[in-house]
TrEMBL record:
<protein>
    <submittedName>
        <fullName>VOC family protein</fullName>
    </submittedName>
</protein>
<dbReference type="InterPro" id="IPR052164">
    <property type="entry name" value="Anthracycline_SecMetBiosynth"/>
</dbReference>
<feature type="domain" description="VOC">
    <location>
        <begin position="29"/>
        <end position="152"/>
    </location>
</feature>
<dbReference type="Pfam" id="PF00903">
    <property type="entry name" value="Glyoxalase"/>
</dbReference>
<dbReference type="InterPro" id="IPR037523">
    <property type="entry name" value="VOC_core"/>
</dbReference>
<dbReference type="InterPro" id="IPR029068">
    <property type="entry name" value="Glyas_Bleomycin-R_OHBP_Dase"/>
</dbReference>
<dbReference type="InterPro" id="IPR004360">
    <property type="entry name" value="Glyas_Fos-R_dOase_dom"/>
</dbReference>
Length: 160
C-alpha cells in the first residue's frame, strides 16, 4: 500500500517501494477488490474461463493478483484485484451478503450468465432489463461468492 507523502505543488504524492508515484489524492475511489476462495485454483480457473482475467501468484503467500485488463492489456475504466484463500466456511446458498458485491460489466449478460453456470456458478438472479441501467444478473461463483453482471444501457448514461 503506498504511503502518503507531503503535498508537492498543491497535489498529494504517494510513495511505493521508495519512489514517488502519482500526484493525485485517492478521492474515495474503489481501487482494489478481493475474492475469497476455499479452493483458489478452482476459482482461478472459473474467473479465467468466464471473464478472461489473468492471475499472478504473489510470492509464497496464498494470494494472487488479478488483472481484469482485456487481451490487449487495456484496463479501460475497471479496477484490478486479488484472490486470497478463504479463512472459514464459504457462504451458504441462501446466506445474506456478508461484504461487498462486485459487479462486472460484460458485452452480453445472457451469454456470460450461461457461461458462468456452465463453469459451475449458480443463479442468484436471472438476467433482466433494469430501466435506465441496463441488463443485469447475479451469480454465485463455485465457492458461493455473490457477483453481479451488467451490460450497461449506454443511451441512459448519455442522457439520450
Amino acid at each position: 500500500m503506498p504511503g502518503r507523502v507531503r503535498p508537492w505543488r498543491g497535489r498529494w504524492c504517494f510513495r511505493r517501494g521508495g519512489r514517488v508515484v502519482g500526484k493525485e489524492p485517492p478521492v474515495s475511489r474503489v481501487v482494489h477488490f478481493e475474492i475469497h476462495a476455499s479452493e483458489p485454483d478452482a476459482l482461478i480457473d472459473f474467473y479465467t474461463a468466464v471473464f478472461g482475467w489473468t492471475f499472478t501468484r504473489f510470492g509464497d503467500m496464498d494470494y494472487w493478483s488479478i488483472s481484469t485488463a482485456d487481451a490487449d492489456g487495456d484496463d479501460g475504466v475497471g479496477i484490478n484485484g486479488g484472490l486470497t484463500r478463504r479463512e472459514g466456511s464459504p457462504p451458504g446458498p441462501s446466506a445474506p451478503v456478508n461484504g461487498a458485491n462486485i459487479v462486472v460489466a460484460v458485452d452480453d449478460v445472457d451469454a456470460t450468465f450461461s457461461l458462468a453456470i456452465d463453469q459451475g456458478a449458480s443463479s442468484a438472479a436471472v438476467p433482466e432489463d433494469l430501466a435506465g441501467v441496463g441488463r443485469v444478473a447475479n451469480i454465485r461463483d463455485p465457492d458461493g461468492n455473490l457477483l453481479g453482471l451488467i451490460t450497461p444501457d449506454l443511451s441512459a448514461m448519455s442522457g439520450a
